[in-house]
Amino acid sequence: GAVVSQHPSWVICKSGTSVKIECRSLDFQATTMFWYRQFPKQSLMLMATSNEGSKATYEQGVEKDKFLINHASLTLSTLTVTSAHPEDSSFYICSASTPVSGGIETQYFGPGTRLLVL
Amino acid sequence: QKEVEQNSGPLSVPEGAIASLNCTYSDRVSQSFFWYRQYSGKSPELIMSIYSNGDKEDGRFTAQLNKASQYVSLLIRDSQPSDSATYLCAVSRLSFGAGTTVTVRA
């Protein structure tokens, strides 16, 4: 399957600082990238959908000014958690999708970034 | 009503048995369906995709889709301890079920 990387894999930061997470599709050009958050023992929660060169579409309840998404190219999207607080501590996972035959897209997930805000 | 619902777990099966996972969805126009496996502390990995009614087999995994009943299932044959994980059902690109945790007892 396709490969999606994330960096960093984990980060610990102080409350009030900003953290940037990178998501790259390594062997394909992703038409769309997605950012998810997952709290312990819960399912994935979609935060936003981003397309290269356009503004991200945020899900209801997700603050766009707090979670800044930049999708600069077909292989790179970044999520910046601004002024992070302990309640932002979570597992952040990106995914990238590309059309396959028949126009049906498949998502490939990155390995995730574990964020701990002290 | 949740968009994607999975049978509540956890599901415990003995090694070598069949694990059966079920998923129902609410959006009738959905066209693509996926099963992901997520090990604890890891991100999901795609194990099966299915788009047409009927069965699709891949190794020990069989996905079954019934669009009329809005139902998709996953069967794991000859379950192995390494199959112990949480299985997520996804409908189209964005709707994920809460997951069913499977434990295979050696």
Task: Describe this protein's structure.
Chain A is mainly beta. Chain A has strands spanning 4-7, 10-13, 19-25, 32-38, 45-51, 57-58, 67-73, 76-81, 90-99, 105-109, 113-117. In chain A, strands 2, 4, 5, 6, 9, 10 and 11 form a seven-stranded mixed sheet that branches. A four-stranded antiparallel sheet of chain A has the order 1-3-8-7, with no helix packed on it. The radius of gyration of chain A is 14 Å and the shape is globular. Chain B is mostly beta strands. Chain B has strands at 4-6, 11-14, 19-25, 33-38, 45-50, 54-58, 61-66, 71-76, 85-91, 95-96, 100-105. The chains are: A mainly beta (118), B mainly beta (106). Chain A binds chain B through residues 1, 32, 34, 42-44, 46, 49, 91, 93, 97, 102, 104-112, and chain B through 31-32, 34, 36, 42-46, 49, 51, 88, 90, 93-94, 96-99.
The first-to-last residue Cα distance of chain A is 36 Å
User: What's the number of helices of chain B?
Assistant: 0
Low-confidence runs of at least 5 consecutive residues of chain A? none
Task: Say what oligomer this is.
Answer: heterodimer
What's the Cα radius of gyration of chain B? 13 Å
Structural class of chain B: mainly beta
Q: Determine the mean pLDDT of chain B.
A: 92
Tertiary shape of chain A: globular
Q: Percentage of helical residues of chain A?
A: under 10%
Query: What is the C-alpha radius of gyration of chain A, as a whole number of Å?
Result: 14 Å
Overall strand count of chain B: 11
Total number of helical segments of chain A? 0
Q: How would you spell out the order of helices and strands of chain B?
A: EEEEEEEEEEE
How is the main sheet of chain A built? 7 strands, mixed
Strand content of chain B: over 45%
* Biggest β-sheet description of chain B: 6 strands, mixed
Helix content of chain B: under 10%
